[in-house]
Design brief:
Order of helices and strands: HHHHHEHHHHEHHH
Oligomer: single chain
Number of strands: 2
Largest sheet: 2 strands, antiparallel
Distance between the termini: 32 Å
Shape: globular
Length: 316
């Protein structure tokens, strides 16, 4: 009886609920004990570092206490942090540079000079601060959406449904950003929500989507001088995007445009192909059970089906 109760309490959907309640509890505690930290704006460096730190604490407790697993079992092997994040960073940098390059070839992106510097600051210092800020943002969003929400939904619903659900959540989560439209929400859901989840499924490393997400924001904003999810950031270059909003993403930034949507969706599809070939797709026990029950019997198939077993995500 105790074993059955333990299994029920550790079921993925209930763990997702416990984890959400834990995050709310830590937020309330932080507001009571350190209101000056709790109320820092999300778009400030302090606010981004706070969000990343809280998410790491929530993820560690969820994995170690609620599920009794190790961090390396969910894609956070410390030994893979630097190489995997580096590979993801290179992919993200190449993707956003290609997007901007294609826009330039179409006459929809042009450099108008060096961006103005804040008073008393240098370009290297500015880029360093923005890199740290955007790393914190990437850690917060990837560990929360892919590390917690997607991972637990995948265990409960399977890879394909989890990708669809987490992508919709990711697109919906950006609906309140400056310049957001239905077009930007769909683009974010497809090119980023699906792509980042596909990278995790193919590699089973959370470090890869963290690095990709980090480079995506860094090159879109501070390097190439365009808006990032509707937010204007300090940049090295001053840029102008004179093309139609359907192509350039308008005031939301290139990630909401058609070029980024096509390239992001194609890259996400490529990583999903890799995931299928590597046998990384998860099918939960209940789905296999239903498949067996509704399967059309083959001629001469009189043998009972083998017991259905769940296929857990591969460990690293």
């Amino acid at each position: 009886m105790l074993s059955l109760l333990r299994r029920l309490l550790q079921s993925p959907l209930l763990v997702l609920i416990w984890t959400g309640l834990l995050a709310l509890g830590i937020d309330r505690l932080l507001r009571r004990l350190a209101p000056s930290i709790a109320t820092l704006p999300n778009i400030s460096l302090g606010g981004a570092l706070r969000n990343a730190a809280v998410t790491i604490v929530v993820l560690v407790i969820s994995v170690r206490v609620f599920q009794g697993r190790r961090l390396r079992d969910v894609g956070l092997d410390p030994a893979r942090a630097v190489p995997d994040m580096g590979r993801g960073f290179l992919v993200g940098a190449a993707l956003l540079t290609t997007v901007v390059g294609l826009l330039a070839l179409m006459g929809s992106y042009r450099i108008v000079g060096l961006a103005a510097l804040p008073e008393g600051g240098g370009r290297a210092a500015q880029l360093g601060w923005m890199a740290l800020f955007l790393l914190a943002v990437a850690l917060f969003e990837e560990l929360s959406i892919r590390g917690i929400v997607f991972r637990l939904l995948e265990q409960a619903l399977g890879t394909w449904l989890a990708i669809a659900a987490s992508a919709v959540l990711f697109g919906y989560g950006h609906r309140g950003n400056p310049g957001a439209t239905w077009q930007s929400s769909i683009a974010i859901a497809v090119e980023a929500g699906v792509l980042f989840a596909a990278v995790y499924v193919a590699t089973r490393s959370l470090w890869m989507p963290v690095g990709l997400h980090w480079a995506w924001n860094l090159f879109e904003g501070p390097v190439w001088g365009t808006r990032v999810s509707g937010t204007e950031m300090p940049a090295l270059l001053g840029a102008d995007l004179p093309g139609p909003a359907l192509l350039t993403g308008g005031s939301f930034g290139p990630e909401a445009g058609l070029v980024a949507l096509v390239l992001g969706a194609a890259l996400g599809g490529a990583f999903l192909v890799v995931a299928v070939r590597r046998g990384q797709i998860v099918t939960p026990a209940w789905m296999r059970w239903m498949g067996e029950r509704f399967r059309t019997p083959e001629p001469g198939d009189t043998q009972p089906s083998a017991p259905v077993r769940a296929v857990p995500p591969p460990t690293v």
